[in-house]
Amino acid sequence: MNSEPEKKDRDEDDAGSSDIDESLDRAELIEKNGEVISHNAKYLIHCLTVIGQVEGHYVLPSQNKTTKYEHIIPALVAIEQDRSIKGLVIILNTVGGDVEAGLAIAELIAGMKTPTVSLVVGGGHSIGVPLAVSAKYSFIVPSATMTIHPVRMNGLVLGVPQTLSYFDKMQDRIVNFVTANSNISEEEFRRLMMQTGELVMDVGTVVDGEEAVKIGLIDSLGGLSDAIEKLYELIEESGDRYPDDEQEGENT
Prior knowledge:
The protein has a single domain, classed as 2-enoyl-CoA Hydratase, Chain A, domain 1, CATH 3.90.226. The strands form 2 sheets. Strands 1, 2, 3, 4, 5, 6 and 9 form a 7-stranded mixed β-sheet that branches. The protein is an alpha/beta fold. Strand 1 (35-38) and strand 2 (45-55) form a beta hairpin. The chain is built from 9 helices and 9 strands. Helix 2 runs parallel beside helix 3 (99-110).
């Protein structure tokens, strides 16, 4: 028969091991996927980072900082299903990347019931624009910039009318998504996209934080504390995310 002191010591050891395992799991999540779950907070929120280049169907060179869409998509599905996670904050500092992968991630974020807030720091360029506006509310710091330009393709391109038609359709998808999820008009967005004289050897426009808010692309200027405060506000306004949440609350 085990004595009480021995049982108490064993329980303490198990608790200590559990805490260590949990800390290692969080560290691995940050290192591999750039994701963090805040536990000791007013509400349980998940932090998702989109940094470097959005990697799609092709693996980029190892020296590139990348956000892999095969990591982000399952994470978004898990966040939406997890009832303990009350909100999602998305931190963006990206140069863009794979158009279809970035648009797929943006569509998933836009379709979430979980309250979402995005914050652009550093840059939200190219396909980073749809990612920034996909959240229910978007912030940008004053020093950040966003590049708006037409769809481009690297490598071999067939010089046939169908190629131009494909580019137009892809561009329409981006324009429609951005204008549907922000306050910028289609005419203004297309004007910025096709502007000449702004970028060297390219077509498009670079806007800073203040300009992005002024043209209606981003909702507000602000930093991390503003984004967290707004997310808490959205959580409190959203109520129950699922129909049976209220019933469960009444039964407990």
